[in-house]
Amino acid sequence: MNVQGKAYLLYDDQCGFCNKSMMFLAGRDNESKIEFLSSHSDFGKALMANNDILDVSNDTVIFIRDGYAYYRSTAVIKALEEIGGMWSRSRLLLEIPICWRDNLYNLIAWNRILFFRSSGACGIQNKFEVKSE
To answer: How many Å separate Cα 107 from the centre of its chain?
Structure first.
């Protein structure tokens, strides 16, 4: 599986908040720089296995670029940076200590089901998901 030069964002497609967040990002990714993948999909699982990503909880967003995997708040910031334009300024958030960023990320992740209903599946489809259907 050759993933060099490509960017992937893996997320829980059973979570309403995650779906809305990915739809927001996909709507701003005008150049289709990122492949949005369910972490539950066959390709998502294969991508995680190929990058030695094991035992990750459903509330963890993962951004993979050039063989490097980023998790939680760093994944979100790296995805925004990848989209470019005004969103590339989000890299300034990396100056905030990761423990603070991830604590906020975890607070949202742990409560996402309370505040956002599950929508069943995300409206984002990509070439990997379409092929598997």
So the answer is: 17
